[in-house]
Design brief:
2 domains; 9-stranded mixed beta sheet; binds S-adenosylmethionine; Rossmann fold; 12 strands; N-utilizing Substance Protein B Homolog, Chain A; single chain; alpha/beta
């Protein structure tokens, strides 16, 4: 099933318990480490990897991930992978390549380019090295490849759970697992502490007022906003993601939130909300640890398109805030173009808004904005800025 999922054919794991956890972990590692796995496979495969059937390449990658990353005993990794191909005509090739890899090991990575060692897009690696330097970039990539912990804000009985780093009621549920079952059995919303930091900061400003949330699905921020606001109108342009929002609404019993499927650039609510929160679509470069396939979408064009969409959302959202109200803009990107440059652009184009500084958690606030860099702060990379509209 992992192989079919990697080949884009099937995402339905009909497994339970340990098998499911292992399958999810293997799927994750194979996706994250793709470039490094391909580098190793290419040196043992007689054909160029690009010429192989998708299912054969997926099997090779899944086998290599078990050998190189998960350190599964080699006989088990090779035989399980070959038998999963169940008689495919290329199963002999997969068997031979994986056996060679198991015997000779991964080729030395010491002289490999950074992007191959840490399996990231080359252009993004070069961008980060020129901005952060090599050492910080490596730390960031190491963070991106690490298995994320699972946690949640957790009011109630939590004495036996490890605390988060910044929020009093944030608790770690699992350090190593990929098991999402907690979120369906308990009335909690599983999210990174960084998302909870931004959501709580917004919820604090939303107290007792009317809130419009743009980019609302699947509801990680709604969960906090609805707890303090008078009511929340939650808008997202994706129908499928809003269906997940609805499931969360029913499960978590949000009773003052109104779902709307619409384009946030075309909303008919001029001067209507005490607080407008844009959780902007972005390149996701701050959350690669959790969104393990997102790095493969990176391109300069993707960044440019995100920046353009974010500006349109900012421009139209500014019209929806009541005089004296608040606008919050947030991304899960580390790129200046999507963060500080957007703040500068907005302030130039909407001089009737003035920055409203966040104060807490003070370790995460720079120049009044929440700026989280994973290797420095130990949580996902997020950005948020808030402004108050003049009366
Ligand atoms: C960062 S995600 C939102 C995460 C969500 N706030 C949460 O905490 O669970 C950004 C969202 O923006 C939505 N989006 C993209 N373009 C949009 C648009 N033009 N109008 C409204 N929503 C949009 C995407 O469908 C996506 O759900």
């Amino acid at each position: 099933m992992v192989i079919e999922s990697l080949a884009g054919m099937d995402h339905n794991f009909n497994l339970s318990g340990r098998d499911r956890a292992f399958a999810l972990r293997l799927l994750r590692e194979t996706t994250v480490w793709q470039v490094r796995l391909d580098r190793a496979l290419a040196s043992f495969c007689s054909k160029p990897l690009g010429d192989l059937d998708v299912i054969v390449l997926a099997a090779l990658r899944a086998g290599a991930a078990q050998l190189i990353i998960l350190h599964t005993p080699s006989h088990a990794a090779v035989s399980a992978t070959v038998s999963a191909l169940s008689g495919h005509r290329a199963s002999g090739l997969v068997n031979a390549v994986l056996r060679k890899l198991a015997k000779e090991g991964e080729p030395d990575t010491v002289k490999a380019p950074l992007n191959e060692i840490w399996s990231h897009p080359p252009s993004l690696t070069a961008r980060w090295v020129s901005r952060f330097g090599r050492e910080k970039t490596e730390k960031l990539m190491e963070w991106n490849n690490s298995v994320p912990d699972i946690g949640s804000c957790f009011p109630g009985m939590t004495e036996n759970l490890e605390k988060g780093l910044y929020i009093d009621d944030y608790r770690i549920l699992e350090r190593t697992g990929m098991n999402p079952l907690h979120s369906t059995t308990e009335k909690i919303y599983i999210q990174d502490e960084a998302a909870a930091v931004v959501a709580k900061a917004a919820a604090e400003l939303a107290k007792g007022g009317s809130v419009l949330e743009i980019g609302a699905a699947p509801g990680g921020k709604t969960h906090h906003l609805q707890a303090t606001a008078d009511y929340v109108v939650s808008v997202d342009s994706s129908l499928s993601r809003m269906r997940r929002w609805l499931e969360n609404m029913a499960r978590l019993e949000w009773c003052n939130s109104i779902p709307v499927v619409a384009d946030g650039r075309m909303l008919p609510f001029k001067d209507s909300f005490d607080l407008v929160f844009i959780d902007a679509p972005c390149t996701n470069t701050g959350v690669y640890r959790r969104r393990c396939d997102a790095r493969w979408k990176w391109s300069d064009e993707y960044l440019e398109n995100s920046v353009a969409l974010q500006r349109e959302l900012l421009r139209s959202a500014a019209e929806l805030v009541v005089p004296g109200g608040i606008l919050i803009y947030s991304t899960c990107s580390l790129e200046e173009e999507e963060n500080r440059s957007q703040v500068e652009w907005f302030e130039k184009n909407a001089d009737y808004f003035h920055l409203q500084s966040f104060s807490e958690p003070h370790e995460l606030v720079r120049d009044g904005m929440i700026c989280i860099f994973p290797p420095d702060h130990g949580i996902d990379g997020l950005f948020a800025a808030a402004w108050r509209r003049d009366q």
